[in-house]
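Collaborator request log, item 7. Partner lab (contact: R.S.) asked for a structural prediction of CO(2)-response secreted protease-like to inform their binding assays.
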Amino acid sequence: MALLLQLLSLFLLLLSSSAISDQIPKPYVVYLGSSSSNSIGLDSQVEESAHLQLLSSIIPRRESERIALIHHYNHAFRGFSAMLTHTEASALSGKQNVVSVFADPILELHTTRSWDFLESELGMMPRGTLSHQHFSTDIIIGVIDTGIWPESPSFNDEGIGKIPSRWKGVCMQGHDFKKSSCNRKLIGARYYNLQITLGGNQTGTVGAKGSPRDSVGHGTHTASTAAGIRVNNASYYGLAQGTARGGSPSTRIAAYKACSEEGCSGATILKAIDDAIKDGVDIISISIGLNSLFQSDFLNDPIAIGAFHAEEMGVMVVCSAGNDGPDPYTVVNTAPWVFTVAASSIDRTFQSTIVLGSGKTFQGSGINFSNLTRSKMYPLAFGENVAAKFTPASEARNCYPGSLDYKKVAGKIVICVADNPTVTRQIKKLVLQDARAIGMILIDEYRKDVPFDAGVFPYTEVGDLEGNQILKYINSTKKPTATILPTAEVAGYKPSPFVASFSSRGPSDLTENILKPDIMAPGVGILAATIPQSTEPGSVPVGKKPSLFGIKSGTSMACPHVTGAAAFIKSVHEKWSPSMIKSALMTTGKMRSDTYAILFSSLFSATTYNNMRKTLTNSSNNFANPHEVGVGEINPLRALYPGLVFETDVEDYLQFLCYYGYTQKNIRSMSKSNFSCPKNSTKDLISNINYPSISIKALNRHQKAKVVRTVTNVGALNATYTAKVHSPVGLIVKVIPDKLVFSETVKKLSYEVSFYGKEANGGYNFGSLTWLDGRHYVHTVFAVHVE
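Returned to partner:
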């Protein structure tokens, strides 16, 4: 009885604690839908006054100091963010004309040779070989990130023409950032006070520092990857030496500092998107996203909301897919109006050699600038063999903080494993450095493809096969020894590209009827501009100045590659809509030079190949599928002349919202028209919107599924395209009609694709439909789940 009373008391305490927590004001976003064409440009103060009045209707008079707006959205869409209790937020959500109210989420940062690799190895020709009379240098990219380092040579404006007259943005000053920090290359910079809810329900302003200047390095890196100018003799302390450049070196950059090291406020990202659209950018690059474990639906996701209205106003939004791979259902930023990017490797690795006392050597991965040599060996120990007293062996193996006996570790090279992903490589390194270890060998099968930067600390990483051999050596001798040599760059690595281990995978957890990610781009070991500051002791080699360039990995690095590619296409086709550019990049993957029959296996269809002219693989050396790569690696040059494009318009996206299950009232609030939902709206119909790929979540093997697509001819006026289908054994795919004839008067044509899976294998079946006219191929990947 006493135990029951204790449990009851605990339960009541938890309820009471939860109720108290619900009444603590926190930042919320109140989304009110689209700015109608009549309201754009109205006095901001009038709308702000209306929003304050709305707040005053639900906030008690005694707390009138909370009747204030953190952010106010009034250009591409309407709304605000403010400090609200859970009860007040619920009350607001029931008000007329309020589309959604949600707690301000904290989003994560998804953190040279890459462009050369795309050109030389995968068939892109250098920009210099092109001759376009209508080539534009006035394309503007808005980078929403951690700010920018304006003095970087990547943002020099020498030889760049005057700022486009349509630019309406500003260069905000700060204590360490002047108006003169902007130029004809970096044409705008904004910063925001970042309201972030930290632990213990405390909300504070963090990381703003009153300046657009980047103090993290992430925003500078992504901006220069997308559009940095050519910088000769760039390197990271001698590694990755060459010419650093962005994908569209002549493109203008506007930086929006919406993030700090602590993360990114969703409300602030919404404000940055609204400002970027108002300022006049053409493309927005966002290497940020919600954690895959805490995804929100599309009306509670700030990036999805902002990107919808950007698309509505003709501005493309490119986003990273997330770094939670290789597990499925981890891809984020999956709204169909967002261009979602997975990450791949390039043909360059950074190897740190392990030399054992036995003379045997192993090539590990990693970046270190140590001064160790072959001439001196050091004692070698396994983490669990140097454990602190009463520490479980599993913790010591993983080099948990506090798990090792510092006296036993000092002066040794220690081997750690990666059984627990919560203990990062950085933490393990710091644990060993604190214990005065000589160096570290990490055994990690799943992250060995991603070079970790250990600074001057001797570090390298191997897979399970090499790791087991090193552990066998330890057990074979009383005094095992080893050394770790400084990192050397290895160029021409094969096979490349492959899917990065960290790259988040589809299918989308929110809707499997849209194939996500969309496309893949380089995101491993990317050299680009960074902040020239040492972030921790030992990160800069002895006698060296802080580097102006850094090597980073992540879908954060892949995203600006696609942004740069999109800007390149926009610079030639200025009147193309975001969906046309997206379609051009998605339907023009590289094909094998041999017959189509060889290219497509019975398991899936590959739309790209690696530098060995073989089918693309993932980091586990298995064939990659569209849930890992989307349609495959970008090929910007081929995308200039796609032949046909899929135009996905705002009405497609509104229908998507209907099919997904949102009310017609909310959808009309989001649009600039009196749109009406179809009478029969189900999630199965999502597959039918005019998207450049096809995904069907559930195909009953005894029924047929049909989808319709419409293509627009952007090639020769008179052209005839013939359909070629490649599907796995047992999945019957038919196209009606199987021939499309375009002329001066016929620029758009529709066709139907039917799927019948009676004899197909259960689970996902991958394939493709290609339209050929003798000069172009228009490639559509499909993913069909047979039940």
